[in-house]
Amino acid sequence: MCDHWMPNLKLPMTFEHFRQLPRNPAYKYEYAEGVARMTPRSLVYHATLDLSSYRPDAAAAETTPIVLRRLRKRDLPSLYPVFAAAFHDLQPFGCLDDADRLRAAEECLMRTCSGLDGPWVRVASFLAAQDGQPVGAILTTLMPDGDPRAWDAFQWPQPPPTDLLRRRGGQPHITWIFVSPWHKGSGVGTALLNAAVDVLRKLGYPALLSTFFSANDSSMLWHWRSGFKLLAYPGSKRRLRSWIQEVSAELPK
After folding, report:
1. In terms of CB atoms within 10 Å, which end of the chain has fewer, N or C?
2. Strands of the chain, DSSP E
3. Is residue 234's pLDDT more than 70?
């Protein structure tokens, strides 16, 4: 849903110059008839965290001078500039001007809190503040049950049941977690994750899924340090071989 904020680019140039272009994984690069074409394709990684084995980083949380509280929908306007600043240099938001980046932040956060990314788990969504000002947030939703490595695993084929959370259905998913660039590296993200994990454990969920942009190296490292395990890309050859083996095993002998 973020690709529409990214422009399609067409640049006249020689093929030699095209070969020297820096590549960004958020774009697909093609060359024909003296024109370089760059088409948006926001690549993402999916990862999973085993909640039974997760050990909260208490030291990081204790040394972080922040206050955590449940995120409310009326908090969203105060988070738009935080979101915009957090993704300022990252695609698909990095190519936008300041005004469009704020509009993108509003659309993304409102979409999540309106249930369009799956049922919003309000009790496992938190805002971090310092000196009364928001510095970060985590927004948790529910994705469908099933294999999260499948192509359509994160899309609801039909409206989910309204009592899904009460029945402990679906799979918890971090749709957004972001921290102000002036507070990154200070334990805010870890404190937000700890708070969400504590709630999800009490609800009885065994795992937490997450998604992050492929170009976001800092997010990738944070997920790795926090204990997330990268899920196989649905189109990978290893995944395809595994699927063929699973299908073959089910065929009558």
Report:
1. C
2. 9-12, 27-32, 35-40, 44-50, 67-70, 126-130, 133-143, 171-179, 207-213, 229-230
3. no
